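Title: Request for sanity check on Glycosyl transferase prediction

Description:
We are preparing a figure and want to confirm that the structure record we downloaded matches what your pipeline produces today. Could someone re-run it with the sequence below and paste the raw structure tokens into this thread? We only need the token string, no images.
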Amino acid sequence: MANSQRYLRYIVFALVCLILLFFISSSSSGPSSWPSITNPAANGSITSPEKPPTTPNTGSSPPPATAAGGRMNATFVTLARNSDLWEIAKSIRHVEDRFNRKFNYDWVFLNDDDFDDEFKKVTSALVSGKTKYGRIPTEHWSFPDFIDQDRAAKVREQMKEAKIIYGDSISYRHMCRYESGFFFRHPLMLDYEWYWRVEPSVEFFCDIDYDPFQYMADNKKKYSFVLSLYEYVETIPTLWDAVKNFTKAHPEHIVEGNMMNWLSDDDGKTYNHCHFWSNFEIGNLNWLRSKAYLDYFNSLDHAGGFFYERWGDAPVHSIAAALMLKKEEIHFFNDIAYYHVPFTHCPTGEEYRLQHKCHCNPKDNFDWNGYSCLSRYYEVKGKEKPAGYEKEQQQ
């Protein structure tokens, strides 16, 4: 009897030991659903199964947008070459950090050549929305058949001797003509109604917590800017004559309540050279694709000034907007802080700059400089200038 009780105790003790060993081995192996630490990148961040990851998945899908609500039919658009990769990468990073990471809008890249794999790989990794890459048709990036090549070459040589910026550049002229009359007609752009132009090597200094595309649509705006100034007189000596020829032939395209007085000091007889700096634009593509704008561009194109002079797309766009849109349809984004060498737009108003984490120096703000056309813009629109502008004007 004593031996039977002793054997029973041994059996119970052995069972207890087996149970303890089982629990110890189970707890040390961990749940099978955790990612392997030998290759953490394969599964994203290492987290407990009870908590969602706190960093974006490294797969092909972009992180979800954080701003609530719908999205406009809109895209960023950039004209760039493969050699511009690292400069446009900086611009993209600014746009994404200050705005697009919250909205995930698409980005269209256009080039007169094919984009290489490195350009596509790097830019698509930086953009939170979809990226699209398009090649510009040769007929949109070449001399039209009505241009006298010898005459155009002589002009470039003369401008080179006069040291006019980009005066001897053929590619710059193709770029200005393309931005003036063709980018909005590229097949990739036909999918969209709104565009935001971004160039290499630009900076954005403040958080943008709302959707400028939505603002434009809700407030019936069609064109917007952040910097305005006077154009180089030497590059556009006959541009205004070409514009007057257009307005005489197509008076139906000139709207009442326009901004002629922003362009001219004498009711249209001469041009004062004010223009919106088009390296930043947010605008309506349907307006650019309208008969009015296309008639305007075709008239200027056949005048030859893109090649016989050096007409920029900035005055071409600006004159069109000021004559063919109502004052109320043009908007100045004081709250979008921006830099493109050599000018800075830093929002006027300390409270706004602090609230939106701006890192621009208000002393660098170009708005109230004597070479800026912004004061004139406010006067023509009959609007009060932002509070505090006098202080910046004195700096």
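Thanks, this matches our download. Confidence is low (pLDDT under 50) at residues 16-62.
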